[in-house]
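Page 42, continued from yesterday. The earlier attempt failed because a stray header line got pasted into the input along with the sequence. Redoing it now with the clean sequence only.
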Amino acid sequence: MNILWLQSAGCGGCTMSLLCAETPGLFDLLEGAGLSFLWHPTLSEATGAEVFGMLRDIEDGTLPLDILCVEGSIVRGPAGTGRFHILSGTGRSMLDWVQSLAPRAQHVVAVGTCATYGGVTSAGENPADAVGVQYEGAEMGGALDKTFRSRSGLPVINIAGCPTHPDWVTETLMLLASGTFGLDNMDGFGRPRFYADHLVHHACPKNEFYEYKASATQLSEMGCMMENLGCVGTQAVGDCNIRSWNGEGSCTRAGYPCINCTAPEFEEPGHGFTETPKFAGIPVGLPTDMPKAWFMALASLSKAATPRRIGVNATADRTVVPPSLQKPKS
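This time it went through. Structure tokens are written below.
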């Protein structure tokens, strides 16, 4: 299967992340799955007339297209023309190219939250009218209409994340290559369920602190960041702490709160990313599926039962009180 990768309005961070794929590396992995790039603006040597000719061949059906990947949001301004972003050398907007090429692709994949829902490039007043490939924020109907389906019969597959984990991209591409990815594999926002059925909270190294509501008050501290520092890992989808990044990391493992970057409109939470909005001292955003009354009762009991070790360590930048030694039972 072949892949055409277009980079639209964004920082290119998802390509940078993709290059961090490990064991095997990106190109060995794609080759092993029978996948190859027709063209990628960063990774391919072809340029100019050669690329333009390839795009026209796809457009007129001479060259079949298996997977169209789009990275970055699609700019519709000014006034719906898309001419704020012209694909260099073609005289046509990226909006026009995506709308023309997408129906010819067997599968269409939006890579990164800018491409899926608009992301950071759509924040604020959004004068460029930046949108996702098939979503505008949480609503369907972006660069492509909400009724759009690729030749496979699927809507746009939304690999959300800012940036995406390299494995989320490669695993999706391999599933497409194997013919085993269908509508049942996508959640309600079009994200692959193999990572979207998990919460960032799962396997977070701060979970012991969370259980006792032993909270950090500053970013350098070891405690749970939900109560004071804006962490929404209990609500955000992603297996970041299960598969980790670059072999060992994640936002929360590095001591930074989860900001829910896989979600539509994460870029405008209405408050600072490291602030937890509260009402009467209770965080407004509660863990997924947990009633407020239950959370209040459990939090109160948990705080009352917090062991000294956890309470002290929560507001320290390293372990101050180690676990107590247990003598074997005779």
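Notes: The longest helix spans residues 166-178.
Reminder to self: strip header lines before submitting.
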